Amino acid sequence: MRLRTKFNLVLLMVFAGSLAVTGWLSYSMLQKNARDEVIQNAGIMMEAALSVRGYTVKQVTPLLEMQLRRVFLPQSVPAYAATEIFNELRSNYAEYTYKEATLNPTNPRDRATDWEADIVQDFRNTPDKKHILGERMTPTGKALYLARPIQITNKECLVCHSTVEAAPETMIKLYGTANGFGWKHNEIVGAQIVSIPMSVPIQKAQQAFYTFMGSLCGVLVLIFIVLNIMLRYVIVRPLAKMSQMADEISTGNLDIPEFKAAGNDEITVLARSFNRLRRSLEKAMKMIEG
Question: 274 is in which domain, residue-wise?
């Protein structure tokens, strides 16, 4: 096997190993960054929902107190206000969802689905758990969800949700008496759930990965070509010429010119040593002939 072939085989193995390790590290990092971005967005949406709820309780509901005695206004309910705000958001971001999933809601649209009910039950089984972060498949692809428990810590909420007799008549006229009652103080009745699609961040991460790996492959190919050119002109070509000269000398042809060597590298030192050996052999042959 030629020196150049051995060198290229080793170089290709090094490049392949480097590409594999770099590819795995960069892909893992980009995927993690994409997931962290989704988690951050989910956290922002959750905090926005909490802000809407707080704003409704502190500023909207007091202004509607007189009207609530005549007619029940869902807009005064924090959960309703937060849900409506995010329904407006979905007009531009249809795959983003926010829901206050409840096991026994007053408003039927808040009733928890099977997978949401499992989250609520998890919170009920482990009251100390503050949030749940997970992934699930949707018709549009993988989505990440962030959930926080809805716990009845404010006794004023029980006015509308403890018993039918204690609830405002205006609310009963709107929603009836079948749902939303029997809640207890400090009970976990539902969960705030934000769901964000992961397809776009993951697609961006994959595109960045392909661009990076393509650029890296291009750089490695360029290095491979440059190293082969240098190998040819700096090492292989001079060694091949010295090998040819050595073959000529071994057959008794001492009329060939000396190998031209310039510089201070190892090949030049070898060439000078070769020339000295040639001159020494030529002198020895003359002494024998004389």
Answer: 206-289
Among the three residues 198, 227, 249, which one is the final residue of a domain in this structure?
198
Q: At which of 198, 219, 253 does a domain end?
A: 198
Q: Are the C-beta atoms of residues 259 and 239 closer than 8 Å to each other?
A: no
Q: In the numeric block, which tokens belong to residue 1?
A: 């096997």
Number of continuous H segments (helices) and E segments (strands) in the chain: 10, 4
Q: What value does the mean pLDDT take over residues 186-195? A: 92
Backbone angles phi, psi at 95, to 5 degrees: -85, -10
pLDDT tens for each residue of 16-73: 999 999 999 999 999 999 999 889 989 998 999 889 988 888 888 888 777 777 788 8
Q: Which residues, in sequence order, are bridge partners of residue 212?
A: none
pTM: 0.71
Instruction: Supply the DSSP symbol for 186.
Output: T
Do 142 and 245 lie in a common domain? no
